[in-house]
Amino acid sequence: MTEVAGTPKSAPDELSLAAEFGTPDRADWERLVAGVLAKSGALPEGFSGPPQSLLATRTYDGIDIQPLYTAEDAAPPAGFPGLPPFVRGRKPEGNVITGWDVRSRHGHADPAAVNKAVLADLENGVNSVWLRLGADALPLEGLADALNEVYLDLAPVVLDAGEDYEAAAEALLAVHSERGVPAGEVGGNIGADPIGLHAQTGRAHEVGPAAALAARIAGQYPRLRTIAVDALPYHEAGGSDAQELGASIATGVAYLRALTESGLDVETAASQLEFRYAATVDQFLTIAKLRAARRLWARVLEVSGAPGVGMSQHAVTSPAMLTQRDPWVNILRTTIAAFSAGVGGADAVTVLPFDGAIGLPDNFSLRLARNTQTILLEESKLAGVIDPAGGSFYVENLTDELARAAWREFTAIEKAGGIVAELSSGALAARLAETWDARSRRIATRQDPITGVSEFPLLDEKPVERPPLPSGVDGGGLPRVRYAQAYERLRDRSDAHLAEHGSRPKVFLATLGPLSAHTARATFASNLFQAGGIEPVNPGVTDGLDGLVRAFRDSGTTVACLCGSDATYAEQAAGAAKALREAGATEVLLAGKPADHDGVTGYVHTGCDALAVLTATLDKLGVS
């Protein structure tokens, strides 16, 4: 071997990176954290607890998420992929060989339009289709036309026909028969979910007919599932992850009882179920939720006598997180949600189009939805690793904590008589409403920010228009909420005012002192007011108090907000507020923490109830 000049003659046996640094421990980290908190003023005087407790965040299920997880944070063993408790996935190979099932959703009333969209999906990476049937969606008699030229032995069909699931099953099986598809090759899911209908409509639906249908189908069509355990109604009612999981497991148990009473053994009965969960922008909670769901169902089947059957999961990007305003941000939200579903081990994933909260999606949004998954699978190779989150101290602990919280919810439902009894009594709805109230408070105070809506809104954005969505299942059951809805109602008020008066409601930003003194708080106030559709008028640096008053009179509004530093407020706030009131201001707000400033009528600051401030401001401005 020829030796190259200037190279070492021998290399070390082992490359040890960063060997010159000492090994830090938790005590070192805690000491550094305490120092940072003390400098920032976030460490209370006399505080003696662990400093990381001040940085912990609490979920809606009461789970405290710590800022640091290490090997000291032990979690129960997660087992192996493809084996009970299936935390690490239902299949030993995960999704490595084929990827997860990319499933697209369609519900247009025109069979030809559905057929065109379905064929485009299947030609461009989609594996299965999810069809919504009904009077306001795809008509039952149009099912065959919608599936024209679809290779049904290769592309399973999942139905959502509401109460008409028996007729839908007959129609779908007739199409398979006409196309010559062997019974053993028929896949997909009939989508019968009478308990989910109860949750949506408020009316009890008998489980027996669905169980009888499953018993008939199971013997002839071994690959076709009959029952969908849809947890989306609980998610869309504003519920927490544990509430969604607990209700779904209770629903699964109710179906398991009915199916075995119809003559199926436990293993066959379990194979008739597919569970549907929401995937949200909170990637770690989504990953943990899917892993915890498999663990919970594995425990149910273990005590029921079928320990070897894993949960089949269908993850859907959350409808509740979609926004109508600045809907392009939904593309990012659904991408994160789809990523989380894939990492969490979902068997099938549906990415809802970014304009799904506005109306029927167009071809562009459908293409983006399917390509989101294609990029994750083909370009990012996300399915190339079995359980990529496995072994993470954080994820394993979060999975365990969430599973325990969900099990408590499940057992509470069972002790109350089961999921049907809880829905009939309204007890479950009351718990979901409590969670939605807590979530609403955090949204109102922008502790749960919504980009493009409650934070960094685009006031002059051109609204995206789409044909109206189908009305869906009759109301009367659990409410369907979207996290952005309260802010968007304020924006609707602003739009109506703009259409009637030719201008938006305005707030004058009374900037005090030099640019460096007022920029930060003027930017904060501007962002906040635009979230309510209120246009901020920023005069910049003015020529003293007289210049400020002139700029206010020229702004054409009667509401002002003082913006400056604390030192500037101490010197100028009272005088500026008095001058503005004398110039016609009906409200003088101040951007900063509440203090004693004469003439100031309200305060806007981090953590304030932004929705209350914006609503009151629109009221003061006479915006109906």
From TrEMBL:
<feature type="domain" description="Methylmalonyl-CoA mutase alpha/beta chain catalytic">
    <location>
        <begin position="59"/>
        <end position="129"/>
    </location>
</feature>
<dbReference type="Pfam" id="PF01642">
    <property type="entry name" value="MM_CoA_mutase"/>
</dbReference>
<dbReference type="InterPro" id="IPR006099">
    <property type="entry name" value="MeMalonylCoA_mutase_a/b_cat"/>
</dbReference>
<feature type="domain" description="Methylmalonyl-CoA mutase alpha/beta chain catalytic">
    <location>
        <begin position="141"/>
        <end position="465"/>
    </location>
</feature>
<keyword id="KW-0846">Cobalamin</keyword>
<protein>
    <submittedName>
        <fullName>Methylmalonyl-CoA mutase family protein</fullName>
    </submittedName>
</protein>
<keyword id="KW-0170">Cobalt</keyword>
<comment type="subunit">
    <text>Heterodimer of an alpha and a beta chain.</text>
</comment>
<keyword id="KW-0413">Isomerase</keyword>
<comment type="similarity">
    <text>Belongs to the methylmalonyl-CoA mutase family.</text>
</comment>
<dbReference type="InterPro" id="IPR016176">
    <property type="entry name" value="Cbl-dep_enz_cat"/>
</dbReference>
<dbReference type="InterPro" id="IPR036724">
    <property type="entry name" value="Cobalamin-bd_sf"/>
</dbReference>
